């Protein structure tokens, strides 16, 4: 407990160091944001001073309960659905629809303290600022904490937002087991939820006027340009290709180089050339091989089989398909060149989401107004709850500068100055959305 308290104090002190007090205006308090980030950092603190708040865990629950206290302080009424999503509502003049903003508080096993919590606390800070300055929105404003965004427990993700949108296939969901082999239904029971209520979490999204999510960039583009805030153009959908290269195993010393059918050489050529394909087709496409298995994996043995997974992403579905097709063409060429057999299985294909042009324009105008700099637009290579909401309601994302682009790591860091500037952008943006008809946000 003492070590946790000590870390929390140091964390808050580091946030407040050289923080420009001029950013405390219009009801927004950097000190309050720093305090709340530091208090959340105590929950699930790891030995590496990272965050370990698995979805549906006691730690995720504790984080939600703490934020509920802050929601009440901000004058919000609180509702929790069957998936564990928490909604804090600031009542507007027209209660028939709402504007929504938030993120998540679950983490990867040894993650950082900004991925997720920043988005929740940014949304909450706007609500508190409005409450303290007497601003009454035209429509209801909802601060949301989505459950299980990261997906670390069940190798999935976006569970809460998908449940709210009615996208969860319950027949598949009930078959899931976590890293301990515990069935999904039992995990729900352990945290006070039920399968029945989870399946009934869908809500009418036609009454949600817009959704805006703040998140750390998870990249270096804003840092390289010395910008606090970026406007996200779209969220990439991954395609995963599991590729198996089969050749002839043999003794490394007794098998001549001529005539070998070495699957690792073939796989190596694929890996080295894959990186060049996205740039030939798209400015936002990426391709990665992050997992590779060699059999029998002996020092003095020519491999008999190599299995790898290629992760290909883009924010445009057609462009992503073209990258995948180009990769498949290259595989055919490599197969013929090296005399090996190559099997390709597509194990995942997620549709990318292009975010509303109008919402991007509002975000860009708000960024320029707050920061005095022209807005920088960039894609998101990672998935977010905004990806789900973006299929149903006008949606936008704001990225916050992340030091060295580090994410999902205890070293994850965003300066308080950058965080609060982004919160000001969010506030300005939400106020513009509040004055705009939903039909004009599409």
UniProtKB/TrEMBL annotation:
Cofactor list: Zn(2+)
Entry keyword annotation includes Hydrolase: yes
Residue ranges constituting the Peptidase M20 dimerisation domain according to the UniProt record: 236-336
Top-rank taxon, per record: Bacteria
List of residues binding Zn(2+) 2: 115, 150, 408
InterPro entries reported in the protein's UniProt record: Amidase_Cbmase, Bact_exopeptidase_dim_dom, Peptidase_M20, Peptidase_M20_dimer
Cofactor annotation comment: Binds 2 Zn(2+) ions per subunit.
Protein keywords: Hydrolase, Metal-binding, Zinc
UniProt binding sites for Zn(2+) 1: 104, 115, 215
A Pfam entry, by short name: M20_dimer
Family annotation (Gene3D superfamilies): 3.30.70.360, Zn peptidases
GO MF, any single term: metal ion binding
PANTHER family per UniProt: ALLANTOATE AMIDOHYDROLASE, ALLANTOATE DEIMINASE-RELATED
Family in the record: Belongs to the peptidase M20 family.
NCBIfam families documented for this protein: hydantase, PRK09290.1-5
Name of protein: N-carbamoyl-L-amino acid amidohydrolase
């Amino acid at each position: 407990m003492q070590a946790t308290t000590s870390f929390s104090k140091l964390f808050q002190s580091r946030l407040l160091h050289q923080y420009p007090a001029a950013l405390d205006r219009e009801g927004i308090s950097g000190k309050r944001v720093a305090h709340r980030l530091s208090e959340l950092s105590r929950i699930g603190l790891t030995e590496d001073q990272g965050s370990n708040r698995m979805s549906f865990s006691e730690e995720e629950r504790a984080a939600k309960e703490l934020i509920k206290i802050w929601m009440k302080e901000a004058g919000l009424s609180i509702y929790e659905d069957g998936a564990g999503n928490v909604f804090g509502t600031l009542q507007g003049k027209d209660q028939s629809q709402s504007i929504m903003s938030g993120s998540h508080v679950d983490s990867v096993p040894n993650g950082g303290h900004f991925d997720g919590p920043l988005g929740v606390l940014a949304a909450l800070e706007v609500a508190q600022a409005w409450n303290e300055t007497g601003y009454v929105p035209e429509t209801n404003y909802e601060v949301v904490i989505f459950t299980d965004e990261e997906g670390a427990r069940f190798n999935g993700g976006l569970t809460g937002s998908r449940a709210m949108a009615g996208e969860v296939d319950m027949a598949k969901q009930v078959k899931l087991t976590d890293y301990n082999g515990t069935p999904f239904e039992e995990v729900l029971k352990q945290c006070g939820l039920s399968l029945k209520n989870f399946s009934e979490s869908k809500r009418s999204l036609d009454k949600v006027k817009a959704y805006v999510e703040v998140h750390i960039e998870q990249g270096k583009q804003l840092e390289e340009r010395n910008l606090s805030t970026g406007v996200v153009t779209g969220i990439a959908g991954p395609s995963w290709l599991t590729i198996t290269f089969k050749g002839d195993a043999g003794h490394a010393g007794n098998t001549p180089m001529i005539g070998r059918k070495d699957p690792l050489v073939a796989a190596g050529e694929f890996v080295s050339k894959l990186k060049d394909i996205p740039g030939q087709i798209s400015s936002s496409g990426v391709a990665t091989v992050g997992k590779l298995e060699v059999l029998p994996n002996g020092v003095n043995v020519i491999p008999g089989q190599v299995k790898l997974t290629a992760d290909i992403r883009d924010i445009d579905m057609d462009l992503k398909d073209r990258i995948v097709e180009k990769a498949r063409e290259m595989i055919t060429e490599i197969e013929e060149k090296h005399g090996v057999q190559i099997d390709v299985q597509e194990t995942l294909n997620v549709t990318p989401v292009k975010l509303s042009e109008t919402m991007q324009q509002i975000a860009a105008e708000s960024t320029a107004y707050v920061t005095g700099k022209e807005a920088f637009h960039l894609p998101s290579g990672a998935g977010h709850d905004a990806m789900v909401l973006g299929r149903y309601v006008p949606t936008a994302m704001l990225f916050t500068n992340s030091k060295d682009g580090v994410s999902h790591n205890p070293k994850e860091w965003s300066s308080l100055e950058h965080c609060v500037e982004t919160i000001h952008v969010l506030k300005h943006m939400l106020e513009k959305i509040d004055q705009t008809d939903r039909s004009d946000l599409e």
